[in-house]
C-alpha cells in the first residue's frame, strides 16, 4: 500500500514516514511544502511531492496519483493567525478530501483535534476556538464523503518517546500522548480495515496499539 502523507514535514508526519519506510507492507510518498525539506525523506527511501496546501485541488490530486491511501497530518501550527488556520486546517483539509476523490483514492485517515464537537467550539478559549471550528467542519466534510475514512482525535501532544500503548475509544478522559505513538496508531489503522468508518480519541494508556485498534 502506497500512502501519501500530507504534512509530512511536521513532527507526526516525520515519525509516520519513518515507520512506514522501516516497516512491512506500506510505502510512503511525503507531501512537503518546499524542496529543501526533501532530504530527510529521500534518505529514508520515500518518494516526495512538493505541493503547498494553498495550491488548488487539482495540484494536490496530482500528488495523490497512484497512491492507495492519504493521511492528513497537516496543521497551521500554534504561531499562525486565524487566516492560516482557515487556509490549512479547514480549506487545505477539504481540498485534500476532494483531491482524493479526483485521484480515485478511497482510504483517508484524518488527524483531527481531541474534541471537535459543536460544544467544544463553544467551550474553547477565544484564541483556540477558530482551530476547533476548522477541525469540526473538516471532519464533517470527511464524514459526508464516500471515502473509507478514519478520524483520529489525539490528546495533548508531547515529544516524549512513544510507549506503544494507548487508551482508545469514542470518548476517553483527556490526557497526553506522544506524537510518536500517534504515528504508530496511524500505521496500525492503515493496516486494519476494521478502522474504516470509525473515529476515536486516543491518549496514553495500557493497551498495545495494535490490540487497541482491533477494539475500536
TrEMBL record:
UniProt xrefs under Pfam families: NAD_binding_10
Locate the transmembrane regions by residue number: none
Specify the superkingdom.
Answer: Bacteria
Q: Do you know which InterPro entries this protein is assigned to?
A: NAD(P)-bd_dom, NAD(P)-bd_dom_sf
| Residue intervals of the NAD(P)-binding domain | 7-192
In terms of SUPFAM superfamilies, this protein maps to: NAD(P)-binding Rossmann-fold domains
What name is this protein filed under? Answer: SDR family oxidoreductase
Amino acid at each position: 500500500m502506497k500512502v501519501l502523507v500530507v504534512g509530512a514535514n511536521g513532527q507526526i508526519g516525520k515519525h509516520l514516514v519513518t515507520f512506514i519506510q522501516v516497516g512491512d507492507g506500506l510505502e510512503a510518498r511525503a507531501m512537503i511544502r518546499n524542496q529543501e525539506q526533501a532530504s530527510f525523506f529521500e534518505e529514508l527511501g520515500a518518494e516526495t511531492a512538493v505541493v503547498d496546501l494553498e495550491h488548488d485541488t487539482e495540484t494536490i490530486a496530482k500528488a495523490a496519483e497512484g497512491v492507495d491511501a492519504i493521511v492528513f497530518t497537516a496543521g497551521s501550527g500554534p504561531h499562525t493567525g486565524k487566516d492560516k488556520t482557515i487556509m490549512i486546517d479547514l480549506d487545505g483539509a477539504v481540498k485534500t478530501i476532494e483531491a482524493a476523490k479526483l485521484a480515485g483514492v478511497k482510504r483517508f485517515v484524518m488527524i483531527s483535534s481531541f474534541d471537535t464537537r459543536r460544544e467544544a467550539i463553544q467551550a474553547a478559549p477565544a484564541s483556540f476556538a477558530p482551530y476547533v471550528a476548522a477541525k469540526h467542519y473538516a471532519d464533517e466534510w470527511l464524514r459526508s464523503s464516500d471515502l473509507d475514512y478514519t478520524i483520529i482525535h489525539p490528546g495533548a501532544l508531547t515529544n516524549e518517546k512513544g510507549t506503544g500503548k494507548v487508551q482508545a475509544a469514542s470518548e476517553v478522559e483527556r490526557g497526553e500522548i506522544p506524537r510518536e505513538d500517534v504515528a504508530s496508531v496511524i500505521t496500525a489503522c492503515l493496516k486494519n480495515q476494521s478502522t474504516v468508518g470509525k473515529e476515536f480519541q486516543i491518549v496514553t494508556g495500557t493497551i498495545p496499539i495494535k490490540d487497541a485498534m482491533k477494539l475500536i
